[in-house]
Amino acid sequence: MLELYQWELSQYSEKVRLILDYKGLEYRKIEVTPGIGQIELFRLTGQRQVPVLKDGNRYIVDSTEIAKYVDAKYPERPLIPQNPKQKALTLLIEEWADESIGIKGRKALFAAISQDQNFRKSLLPTSTPDIFRSLVEGVPSDILTVLGLGVGYSPDVVKAAIADLKQDLEAVTLLLTDSPYLTGDEPTLADLAVAGLSILLKFPEGSYLDLPASLRGQGVPTIANNPDYQLFFEWRDRLYAQFRKPLIGASPAGSAPTSIQID
User: Can you give the pTM of this predicted structure?
Assistant: First the structure.
């Protein structure tokens, strides 16, 4: 069985999970603990970032490389069209989504959790002990602002990211007004990338992530609750309903992640 080294709330991990589910591939999720788990991941692969897919003795790093690998090895339900123009558009949208929705989405979510104690507490995995939940909830917003500055998430940077995301979502929504998918009548890597990377903006309605049920449909307030993007999120949730395996009652591919073991 394929093994996916991941973080449950990593939108790049979610992009790969959606791709694997779309392909109908069975896989086991291995949750990489930040810090010590990344040391083991580095020993195995030479890098510390998730997602990493293990297929037999081979490790494939980076969500785009994973997508290309599984499309070549498991050609059923192709991700990348054969038509040259559709292929070019698919690859362009996928790369744009990585750089725009993926990176800016983190900044937008950081702003939301900085301002809402209950929201950041709820984002912890359901297995998190109550005492740790309380500690996270009690971190003052001012402290989080300082931490954000340390990683380049200043208020101006976050504000610009949210403005850019709104413009991007408007553009994607326009692409979907007369087409079921972003590049035509069939889903491609472009659709799966945009849909999977958008989870931090608004969590899907279904039971796809190891999060409290109360967070389904919640997200960055100025985006998740904005009627201008309703068509986009309805499209995203339909795509999830079609292809993403839910956690409850699913096969091992949809079960809760296994923590990484340190030798």
Answer: 0.84
